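Task card 7
Instruction: Convert sequence to structure tokens.
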Amino acid sequence: MSDLDLQVPAAFDPFAEANAENSGAGTKDYVHIRIQQRNGRKSLTTVQGLKKEFSYSKILKDLKKEFCCNGTVVQDPELGQVIQLQGDQRKNVSTFLVQVIAFASVTLFIMCALSLLISSSFNFW
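Output:
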């Protein structure tokens, strides 16, 4: 048995690159567009993850005027500022953000109320 050199593989950490400080993981910009079911057919569309340099009130004003719906900007302690719109405006908001604000390098996630991914992340390059 001494003739055989057994090499025991070292423990492999599949998340080592993601946990590294210089890996660049988590540096992507994500905008989450979700729908929250209220009661019956009523729903709210929430938009979070916009950069702080944007004027939320101006974006909200344009969204309300474009889609003929009411909305507000809510300050959340964990998520920061979140735009809320009445109705299911997921597709409208995503096309608005891509065309008007020119989100080319931002990944848009369109999600439902339980944060289940309805469709894959939309990369609008």
